[in-house]
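Problem: given the chain below (376 residues), write out its structure.
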Amino acid sequence: MDDMKEEVPNTIVTKLSADVMIDILSRFPVKTILSFRCVCKTWLRIISDKDFANPHLSRSPPGILIKALPEGGISSIFHLFQIHEETGKTFKVERMEFVPETNLPATANIELMNSCNGLLCLSGGEFRNVIHVCNPILCEHIEIQVDDRKTCLYGNYFALGCSATGNQYKVLWTFYQNDRHRCPKAEIYAIKTGHWRSVGNGFSIGRLDFNTSLHGCIHWARYETSLECICSFDFESEQFKRLPAPPICDGNLDGFIRLGVLKDCLSVTVRKWDAPYEIHVWVMNEYGVQESWSKQILFKPDYHHFISYEPLILLRRGKILILLDGELVVCYNIEKIRSWGRIIKSENMEDTHAIAYNPSFVSLHHIAAGEEQVLR
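Solution.
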C-alpha cells in the first residue's frame, strides 16, 4: 500500500507547515479524514501523528453511539451518529457502523461501559473478566485482564478516564467484596503499567450517564426520591469526591435523574412525580460551587406516550436532542416548545444501549506503548 501512496506534486499545499496542515485537516469529518490517509505519505504521517488527535478532538462534532444486539444475534454492532450543524437552521447526521473483528474486538455480546476522548471501555469475557480499551475509528484495541478470583464479586463496574494533564489513561473498577459488607472497594489500572492496584474504599459507580467526563473526572449521582449527592472520581489524584447537588432534594423525584455535560458545565436532568412530563435541566456554572447551580432549561415534550425522556446533547440555536425510551432520538426546539424532527430509530433490535461519543484519532500505539499488544 505504501507504494501506492506517492508524494503529491510540489504545490502550495505541500509547502504549508505541519501545524497549518494539522489545523486544516482536523476540520474535516471523520470519514473524509480517513480517506485523506490514502492521498499521500505526507498526509498519512500528519494524521497518524499524536499531535493531530487533540486539535481534531476539540472540533469533533457531538455524537451518539448506540450498541445494538440484533434479534437472534450474538454479536453486537455499534452505530455512530454524528451531528454536524450547518450554517443555517439545519443540521445533518453522519452515520458509521462498527462491527466485531474489524472495528471492535471479536467478542460476543460485549458490554459498553463508557468512553473517553474517542476511546471505548468495553467489558467482555465469559465471566466479564476482560476489559477492552478500543478506538473503533482506527480499528485498535488492547485487552486488560481482571483477576478471576474477583470477577464473581458484587456490583462490578468499570470506567475509562484520562488525567487532567492528559498524560495518563486509566481504568477504574468499583466492586463489593460480599453482599453483606456494603463498603465498596476500588482498584485502578494505569495503562502502560500492566497491573491493577488498590485505591482503597470508594463509591460504587452503579451507572454512568450519557456524558459525565469533565476536568479529568467522571461523575454519577446517588439518589432515590431525593438527590443525595453527586459523586466523582479524579483520575489525576485518584480520589473519590462529593460535589454539591442542585437545590432539588425535596423527596419528589420519580427516580429519573441524569447527569451530563452541557456547554462544558456539569448538568443534572430531573423529573418529578407531580409533573412527569416536565423536564428540568440544572447547570453548575462554576465547577464545585453549590451557589452556581441554575435551572436553565424547562420544557414539556409532546411525546406523552413515551415513558422516559433523556436529554442528550444541547445544540446551538436552542435545540436539544432527546432519547425517548432508549430507542428513538428526536430534536426538540426549546424556544418554540415543539418537536423538530426524528433523528434516529432503533429497529429490529433486542437490546440497545447509548452513550455520548466523539470519535477521535487518539491512537493506542501512542498511549498504550507499554502494553503487551495493540491489536489492529
